[in-house]
Amino acid sequence: MVGPNRPQIVLFGSSIVQFSFADEGWGSILADLYARRADILVRGYGGWTSRNALQVLEQVFPKDAAVQPALVIVYFGGNDSILQVQNGLSPQVPVPEYIENMRKIATHLKSLSEKTRAIFLSPPPVNEDLIRNFLGSLGLRRTNESCRKYSEACLKLCEEMGFKAVDLWTALQQKDDWSTACLTDGVHLSPEGSRIVAKEILRTLKEADWEPSLYWKSIPAEFVGLSPLDPEASEAFQRNLQWETN
Question: Taking the complete model, does pTM exceed 0.85, yes or no?
Fold first, then answer.
């Protein structure tokens, strides 16, 4: 392992996670902010559902690992919500099973260590017209109404279990032109959509009463001041984070 030891932040989920470093994605935004503070690790698997996640949960997050993550950001639900079709090829996971799968994921993460925290992202909305144009039959039967049901199920479970959650279904739709501005193909996030996701994650981290805080400004940067050119050593140094607060 490359040292020194930093807090580990793991992004775990389906394609919304796998692609989070592409096209000005939310993962890359977090990685930029947490540079010299924490390591962002991506464990994203396109096309996966919560059912698939359970198959590898203990391999991705072994209980006997020497170092446990400080934070896990979890996203599953978009693929779970795809409506069943006659040929039976849909990966749909019924809502009751989805809830239990997410409960098992949350319980496992909680068992890793007393310091391991988790934030769950609820399924974002989809643009059904764009899905038909871009994905055709590969889009199967994705509807915004189905995403809403899975989003509400995720949020309700997190409230019940005391986990932090980000309501992406609502957050993205606060923007008037969300259906085209926030999504590329009707499902995956555009740079604008990713900025909203990153903003909501950062807001959640800033407001959390966790000790120690995992908000990026609360984590000391490494090796500050060894170089006279180090911007971190300057009191005047400020990152341009206008999008984070507006």
Answer: yes
